[in-house]
Amino acid sequence: MLQIKQPLHILWPFLIGIALATVNAFGVEHEGWEALKKGGYIIMIRHAVAPGGGDPPNFSLDDCTTQRNLSDEGRLQAQALGEAFRQRQIPIDEVYSSQWCRCKETAQLAFGTYKELPALNSFFEYPDLDVRQTEAMVDFLQQRRPHRGNLILVTHQVNITALTDVFPSQGEIIVITMSADTQLEVIVRIKVQD
Asked: Can you list the positions of beta strands (E) in 81-172?
């Protein structure tokens, strides 16, 4: 049994702080989901759990057996992502995915359908592609702004970080707006529990 040695009135500020942090985290995520119901957002999602980092030396884009792929936990997480969108009736214009198998599988399990977009491909082991791919992604977003629904982009940590300065966890949702002068602003980060 937990024994509290300090008088409770001394712990109140600490306990209230924990409670407020919990409420604020819930409140921000709740407001984020509510905003998504209106549509018009760019939603970047890092692929679901795929243990390890990078890809094996024999990596081939055309052969999933040579890549780092989703684990069973990752597959459940991807399904939970899609269910979170469906339960909240979040409108979706289109879903795009990196050509890496872990991203395509995340998109398939979560949303059922997607289009491949090379600008979402990882440049983790190809740092010379960083600027070119990030610029290609901004160009794509200028042409494909979400309208009634939201635009979903399933990609990798490096791509999301290059665009937003956010280092997302696997399966994390980053909600973004884009201004007329192509400035990206992160509105909210959402983690879906599987």
From this structure: 92-97, 115-116, 150-155
Three-class SS of residue 60?
A: strand
The whole-model pTM stands at 0.83
The amino acid at 161 = T
Q: Where are the domains of the chain?
A: 8-190
What mean pLDDT do residues 93-98 have?
97
> How distant is the alpha carbon of residue 110 from its chain centre?
12
Q: How far is residue 91 from each of residues 38, 78, 141, 144, measured CA to CA in Å? A: 8, 18, 18, 16
CATH number of 8-190: 3.40.50.1240
Q: What pLDDT sits at residue 125?
A: 73
**25-66: pLDDT as tens digits:** 445 788 889 999 999 999 999 999 999 988 888 889 999 999
What is the rounded average pLDDT of the residues 1-22? 38
Rounded alpha-carbon distances, angstroms, from residue 32 to 80, 86, 129:
17, 15, 32
Class of residue 192 by CB neighbours under 10 A (exposed 0-12, middle 13-18, buried 19+): buried
